[in-house]
Design brief:
The chain folds into two domains: 3-175 and 341-387, 3-Layer(aba) Sandwich (Rossmann fold), CATH 3.40.50.1480; 181-338, NAD(P)-binding Rossmann-like Domain (Rossmann fold), CATH 3.40.50. It has an eight-stranded mixed beta sheet, covered by helices on one side. It has a seven-stranded parallel beta sheet with strand order 3-2-1-4-5-6-15, with helices on both faces. The chain has helices spanning 3-16, 19-28, 47-58, 75-83, 96-107, 123-131, 133-137, 147-158, 173-196, 212-223, 235-243, 251-254, 273-278, 334-338, 343-362, 377-387, 400-406; strands spanning 38-43, 62-67, 87-89, 116-119, 141-144, 166-168, 204-208, 227-231, 247-248, 260-263, 284-287, 306-311, 314-318, 324-328, 372-374. α2 (19-28) runs parallel beside α3 (47-58). β2, α4 and β3 (87-89) form a beta-alpha-beta unit. The chain contains 17 helices and 15 strands. The chain is 43% helix and 15% strand. By secondary structure, the chain is of the alpha/beta class. The structure holds nicotinamide-adenine-dinucleotide. The site of nicotinamide-adenine-dinucleotide has 32 residues, from α8, α9, α10 and α14.
């Protein structure tokens, strides 16, 4: 089978498990709420993203796409999208130089002025702002998915350099709960199994960060019989980890004994060369958090260490005394590099992204200032509604008296913005 035909099949499989975004496609394709939108997309290029891309096109947008991660592209899917006429600049195993070339190609096209950005990590936004400031001025809105991209946007806003409204999808309740928690809960196991064939029972794991991703990973690992240690900087998350039954430690306290180290912090240099020096033979090191910043991989590229590629995405780093540590995906997101993520969670994120694009693109002038916004709670609820039929879930309706008693509209939103789910 040709690569694009294989990719098309992958997209069709993803569609089956992405009911929300498919429902949105069906509901909104007559109205074309993204008519004339020209969207630069920079996200993982996989079957699930393809379902989003084809939905945006069905809603009237023209799109150009690049990958936000050099290892996560499904080449066959990129081929299928190209075969269907989409401009996609991505392949698995891009170099750093290729990566920026692809984003540049995606942004800078003849006779095509983008007016929206859909970013995951802030790289397309960064490139356009720095290299094509005139083009950036004509952007109507940015939708950003990652914690780091969102952080950059808030910094831009603070320094007065953000000249367009932006939507922080990362912190939408519906996205955070599902993409960060449930998706990582399932995919951490999958990615470790596929890359190392490890048996989890009885293994000691150091998990850095107990946010949504950390909570999901720790639950899954504990369920399989791992002994999980958590590191945290935030006392609230540390207390949550403790009351969930995990020992909260400094990484140095356990680093010599653990079998697996997983980072989930969104931070940088969480696992340093010094930590890796202390790890025991065979310790697996991987990142579920941000990009490639959490593990100091560059500090392992020194003449005294030998790198041995044992499988795709699996490197043994051999120390002078013969000790090996097992580095997965060169410190990039292990689940996106070594396994797949649940399409259902991707459906929730994609539907949220699509609604954020529709909202910013169609907003009346003045509705949004040049600042970073969260999607309204009503839209979060709408994304959930799109997905409930899959489970044949039947919502209870408020009676008039109940709605009055609670001070709610019968059609939502059902919770105030400060509610923590
Ligand atoms: N792999 C994936 O598929 C996937 C999915 C969603 C999000 N993410 C990424 O995972 C990261 C975490 O997301 P989240 O929603 O859990 O964020 P979060 O903010 O809820 O959790 C991160 C936690 O790490 C803690 N932390 C920060 N620095 C630390 C350090 N040096 N040592 C120990 N703990 C530290 C923070 O206090 C916080 O509790 C983000 O970068 C996010 O973009 C990855």
């Amino acid at each position: 089978m040709q690569q694009h035909a294989f990719g098309r099949r992958e997209i069709e499989i993803a569609e089956q498990e992405m009911p929300g975004i498919m429902a949105l496609r069906k509901r909104a394709s007559d109205d074309k709420p993204l008519k004339n939108a020209k969207i630069v997309g920079c996200t993982h290029v996989n079957a699930q993203t393809a379902v989003l891309i084809e939905t945006l096109a069905a809603l009237g947008a023209s799109v150009r796409w690049a990958a936000c991660n050099i290892y996560s592209t499904q080449n066959e899917v990129a081929a299928a999208l190209a075969e269907s006429g989409f401009s996609v600049f991505a392949w698995r195993g891009e170099t750093e130089e290729d990566f920026w070339w692809c984003i540049d190609k995606c942004v800078n096209a003849e006779n095509w002025q983008p007016n929206m950005i859909l970013d995951d990590g802030g790289d397309a936004t960064h490139l356009m702002l720095k290299k094509y400031p005139a083009m950036f001025k004509l952007i109507k809105g940015i939708v950003e998915e990652s914690v780091t991209g969102v952080h950059r946007l808030y910094q831009l806003s603070k320094s007065g350099k953000l000249t367009v409204p932006a939507m922080n999808v990362h912190d939408s309740v519906i996205k955070t709960k599902f993409d960060n928690f449930y998706s990582c809960k399932e995919s951490i196991i999958d990615s470790l199994k596929r890359s190392t064939d490890i048996m989890f029972s009885g293994k000691q794991v150091a998990l850095c960060g107990y946010g949504e991703v950390g909570k999901g990973c720790s639950q899954a690992l504990k369920a399989l019989g791992c002994i999980v240690y958590v590191t945290e900087i935030d006392p609230i998350c540390a207390l949550q980890a403790s009351t969930d039954g995990f020992r909260v430690v400094k990484l140095n306290e356990v680093i010599r004994n653990v079998d697996i180290v997983i980072t989930t912090t969104g931070n940088k240099s969480v696992v340093t060369r010094e930590h890796m020096e202390k790890m025991k033979n065979g310790c697996i090191v991987c990142n579920m958090g941000h990009s490639n910043t959490e593990i100091d991989v560059k500090d392992l590229r020194t003449p005294d260490l030998t790198w041995e590629k044992v499988r795709s995405q699996v490197d043994h780093i051999i120390f002078p005394d013969g000790k090996r540590i097992v580095l997965l995906a060169e410190g990039r997101l292990v689940n996106l590099s070594c396994s797949s993520v649940p399409s259902f969670c991707a459906s929730i994120t994609s539907a949220t992204q699509a609604l954020a694009l529709i909202e910013l693109y169609n907003a009346q002038p003045g509705r949004y200032k040049c600042d970073v916004y969260l999607l309204s709670r009503k839209m979060d609820e709408y994304v959930a509604i799109l997905h409930l039929p899959t489970f044949d879930a039947h919502l209870t309706e408020l009676s008039d008296e109940q709605a009055k008693y609670m001070g709610l509209s019968k059609t939502g939103p059902f919770k105030p913005n400060y509610y923590r789910y």
